[in-house]
Amino acid sequence: QVQLVESGGGSVQAGGSLRLSCAASGVPSSSDCMGWFRQAPGREREGVAIINSVRTSYADSVKGRFTISRDNAKTTLYLQMNSLKPEDTAMYYCAAGRRSAWIYGCDSGTGNDYIYWGQGTQVTVSS
User: Fold this and answer.
1) What is the DSSP string of the chain?
2) Percent of the chain scoring above 90 in pLDDT
3) I need a labelling partner for 10 at 20 to 30 A (CA). Which of 89, 96, 102, 103 fits?
4) Radius of gyration of the chain (CA)
């Protein structure tokens, strides 16, 4: 059974930092893609950052501020978020296992191609 459990969310002032963690268990070893997505109230879910064995990629809105990483065993995924802005306020979700990754890579705009999801952790940035 696959489990993804996020932690590390909270409330912070603009300019502050948070580090999100995602504890992953049971993810098939063939599932190399992992990522962070977020959804703000009234808005569509969006990709924040993606990682696999050879590359990372970021949404333009977070480049230079957020860093995605994971341990070698792929059991913990991290998202270091610096210089936070009020527009970063959202529920943040950890995801793993992108369908057809061998064809399309790990990117997936809204994350609909990802199989496994955590329950989310709230990030609130005040101005």
Assistant:
1) --EEEEE--EEEETT--EEEEEEEES--TT---EEEEEE-TTS--EEEEEE-SS-EEE-TTTTTTEEEEE-TTSSEEEEEE-S--GGG-EEEEEEEEETTHHHH-S--SSSTTEEEE---EEEEEE-
2) 87
3) 96
4) 14
Residue-wise pLDDT for 58-80, tens only, equals 999 999 999 999 998 899 999 99
- Residue listed under structure tokens 């808005």: 43
For residue 124, which amino acid is it? T
The predicted structure's pLDDT at residue 84: 98
Question: HSE-up of 20 (CA within 13 Å, CB side)?
Answer: 34
CA distance 1 to 4: 10
